[in-house]
Each structure stands twice: as structure tokens, then as C-alpha cells.
Amino acid sequence: MTSMQWRIWSLACAGKFFEGMVVFMTGVALPLLAIEFDLKASAQGLVTAASLAGILVGATALGGLADAYGRKRMFIVEMIIFTVFLVALTLTPSFTLLVIFLFGAGLALGCDYPTAHMVISESIPTRKRGRLVLSAFAFQAVGALFGTLVGFVVLHEEPDVGAWRWMYATAIVPAILVIIGRFFVTDSPHWLASQGRTAEAERATGRLLRRHPPYPKRVSLKRSAESGPAAPDDSGYAALFGRRHRRATIFASVPWFLQDLGTYGIGIFTPTILVAVIGAKSASHTLADTVHNDLLAAEGSAIMNVLFVIGILVAIFLVDKIGRIKLQALGFISCAAGLGLAALSIRPDGGHNMVLLFAGFMLFYFMTNLGPNSMTYLLAGEVFPTHLRGKGAGFAASFAKVGAVLTAFLFPVLLDEIGTATLLAILVAGFLLGAVVTIVYRIETTGVNLEQIGDAEPPMPTARQRDGGTSIPTIGPASRP
């Protein structure tokens, strides 16, 4: 790993950090927003769903542009968009503008889903790809924990209804620094080669691999005789649903959708669920009661988010040893077990078993990042060929965020209408279905060079690849193994 490779990795981490921070901090800010703007359950659902809806649109609408305009350009543009909307969010005077600005911030974060994955995976050795992509993804969990802690500290120091503005404002200066840093990275040699810009790809590869003493001293990329430009009917979004790529599209999209149904719903509304179960019961709903319950829930949510971080750390260690498929399937089943325990903790008489509740949530938070939350993100950026990677990963992220938006919007309403236990039982069924789809449509990419990906079934890794073959392009965009 060169200094440029580490720079690209660290700047990609930032996007996932901001996503975790903004999305999950909304759960802490929501009670204050409800008071300031007098929000009912459906309006609260709009607030929590707004940034996720932005991610849904941005992953495809902006993320797909990385295939046409380059990884680096969209890597910069997305962070500029995020910062502009974040500043506007802290100054918003109305509920309508609040929702619009949250959507705009999500739009940028959606672009980051495929783009951050690609700038890492197309710049590092095959044998390190899983660990480093997941290490960057881990910063979503770090951001979620940080966002919860920021919410707690701000509330503690400023127990006022407008404290939520300071929560979001803490991300503005770091975001500006990330924008500046992204101007000083190389573009993807994979993408440049796929566009026929071989000379630029050689220069980018040389800059990417620059080290002292120099190795390699000269970079020369050649297109294999059988490769060529992608066919017109194999480069648009329609190609994702053709015979060649349909399996990859289903495999990348459906399990991610099912896990987002639970992960975002539970992640955002853990404070709300904890308040409903263990919060101070009061009919007055004063600001003091709201702040007290919010602080209590933030503490419990922070404990859960620690397990979120631990889960991704274990995934980083295991992903290239055990493989993506086993971790994803095991994670889905274990998450179902965790939510099942949480559902059983709530008794028909309204009482609760605190041990079962926390044991269930702790198992869920640990296993979701060990399994489906991290693996679905990793696999979506690996199962498509270079010329379709941005569109494929972007579509998968957008499809997944349909689940996130649905659960974020409907959670407040369903908690009132059908109760916590029933809602948790529905999510259990969703996670079990995710395990089934993972096993039926599985495509294992562990140890497979990105240049060999694109057929319905990627080849098994060769001995050279398992020992650390590079991911830097040596053949063209429509390569065959």
C-alpha cells in the first residue's frame, strides 16, 4: 500500500462516516424537531425518511454518473453537494425546508455508496480489497456512534429545543476539509482504461503506485486481444436486467433491500423504542421530560452502536478468510434471532423483560454489521464489470434504500398502530428471507480479481490471486477470464 492508496482510502471513509452520523443522529434530534415544528407521527416519518429518500435517488442518479464522468469527479461533487445542504439544514426556518435539505444531504450520500467503494476497490490489491472496503464501510458505524454521542453531549450542554441545529453543524468543517483532500487523489486506472484512455491510465497507475524506492519503475498497460469496448446494449441500465447480469442484479439488490428494512428502522428508532419501553411516563410531554428521555435513550443507543462498531471490526478480520456469502447468510439468521428475542421481551400486559430486550438488540447490532449490512455493500460493488460497476452498485443501493425509506417513514406509524412486538416479528421474517435469497443467488467474489468479474459466475480465484494479485487493470473493460 502506497501513500496515495491510503489517502484514497481515508477520504472514502469520510463519506461513510458522515452517512452514519447524519442518518442515525436524526433519531436523537427527532424529539426536539417534533417540539419545534409540532410534528405528528406521519410528519416525523417524513423527517427520518428524507435523507434515506435522498440516498435512494442519489445512488442511481448521481452514482451512475461515475461510469460516464469518472470516479474522481463524482467523488468531489458529492461532498460539495453534501456540505451545501448541511449548512442550509442548520439554518432552516421551516419544516418543509428541513425535509428538502435532509433529502439534499442524502442525495450526496447516495452518490457516495457506489463511488467510495469503486475508488477503493479499483485502486488496491485483490487480496486486501475486502478488508479495506469494509474498513471504510466501518466508518458508517463509527459515524453512527459519534452522531449519537454528539447528540448526547449537545443535549447535555444545551438542553434547549434548538440543540438539534448544533448537532448537524458539527459536521460542516470536517466536510470542507474532505472536499479539499479529494482534489488531490488519482482517478481510477480501471475507469480510465475502460474508456480507452490508456495513456492516462498508465500515468494514474504510476502516480497511484509511487513509492521510494520506485517500484514498478515503469507502467505499461495492454488490452488483451479478445477484449474490446462494451457493446452498446451492455452499457446502460437495461443491461442490469439482461441475461448476463440479471443474477448479479438480484443478488446485489434484494438482500440489501431486506436488511435495510430492519437495520435503518431499528438503528434510527432505537432511541424511540427504548423511550417507549424504559422512558419516564408522563402525560405532560414537557421539554424537560423530552430532554430527559432523549438523554436516557441516547445512552442506551450509544451502547448498541458500540456493538455496531465491534461487528464490523470482526467482519474485516473474517471477510477474506471465511468469504462474503457465509458471513451474509449467518448474519441474516442471527439478526432474525436477535429481533425475535427483543419481540419476546415485550409481554402482552405492557411489561417487559429488560434482559431479553437488551440481549436481542445487542445480538442484532453486532450481527448486522458482521453480516448483511457490511456484506451487501461490499458485494454490490464487486459483482458487476467495470463498465457497469457504478450503475450496478448504484441501482442496488437505490433499491435497498426503498426498504430504508419505507421503514423510516412507516416505523412511527406502525409503532403506534400494531405495537413494537408485532413490528419486530415482521422484521424477523424479512431477515430470514434475506438468508434464503443470499444462498439461492450467491456469487462469491472473495479472492477474484475485478477484471475477471462480469460473467454470471465469476471464476474461482487462482493461486496467484489468492496470494495477492493486483486489482490494477491489465486488460480492457469487457474482459473475459
Automatic annotation (TrEMBL):
Residues 454-481 are annotated as: Disordered. The keyword Chloroplast does not apply. The keyword Transport applies. GO terms for cellular component: plasma membrane. Residues 8-446 form the Major facilitator superfamily (MFS) profile domain. GO terms for molecular function: transmembrane transporter activity. It is found in: Cell membrane. Its main location: membrane. This is MFS transporter. It is a multi-pass membrane protein. The chain crosses the membrane at residues 12-35, 41-62, 74-91, 97-120, 132-154, 166-185, 261-280, 300-320, 327-346, 352-371, 392-415, 421-441. It comes from the Bacteria. InterPro entries: MFS_dom (IPR020846), MFS_sugar_transport-like (IPR005828), MFS_trans_sf (IPR036259). Keywords: Membrane, Transmembrane, Transmembrane helix, Transport. It comes from Mycobacterium spongiae.
